[in-house]
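Much of the work behind modern protein science is quiet bookkeeping, done one molecule at a time. Below is the pair of lines this work produces for a single protein:

***
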Amino acid sequence: MYQKNNYHLPIVSKTMRLQALLSTGIPVPDFRAQCYHRSNGVALHASCSGRHRRRTVSASGSQSSTFNAVKKRKVVEHICLLKAKRDLSEKDENDMLDYLYTSQYQMRGIVAISLGRISSDIVENYTHAVVMRFERKEDVTRFYENPFYLKVLKEHVMPHCQEILNVDYESEVEDDILSIFRKGEEFNYGVEFLHLIAFSENPFAAPAKEALTFHKRLTEEFPSLIVQSTQGSNFNTSSQEYTHGLVTRFRSFEAFEMFMGSTEYKETWKSKFEHIIKKTLPIHYSVDPVGKELM
């Protein structure tokens, strides 16, 4: 049975703490299982998943790596937002989420999935979100036509929901198993932040590209707060309300609050995005372990 543990770590002056951590000039501590070592006065950050980075943090929050560019691999992200009916019972909610989650074991192509009840103030009445990762665009096409998925929608989702919004985009992640399949301790907990964006003019014009580039660089500068972040243009022809999607996995609710409240993020959004977007939909949900009693 899908289990939801709505726990949040305490928030202690998020902006002040982030500024204090960055001003020290040492790596910002991770909030989940991380290993730390010091050698010859240089801080070494080693993720317990086995991926190693040597980084330093400047007072402005920028970080650098002594390693060359990491090899990347393309993946496809599928975002599904649900508007549940007001009379949805806990039993029906668990049933719906169970079937959506375990669909990864019934269909080929799905390499990772997370889902949950939206924690933020309900925007446009969306109540639940699902993020599925596929290897290729062709897998997404087959997914929409899969008889098992259509049956899940018909029998376990649509009876309890009044609307569904889908966004699909292609992005890149590190070319290793843990990053591709979103496995390991780093992905077991945290906050999934989904941000859908509709640019007011040409979504492929220079201003939009520049804004997305700045956002990508910013998320890469905070590995102690962010596990992984992807973004891309929506290629779902049946749902063009939003031109782009972004998915960012934060290590904890506190990490999410720190990043969103940071001067760096606020200035990037204000200077690069606000004047060129038509509408935006930011939501997040807590990522908790799924129980052993799956359907």
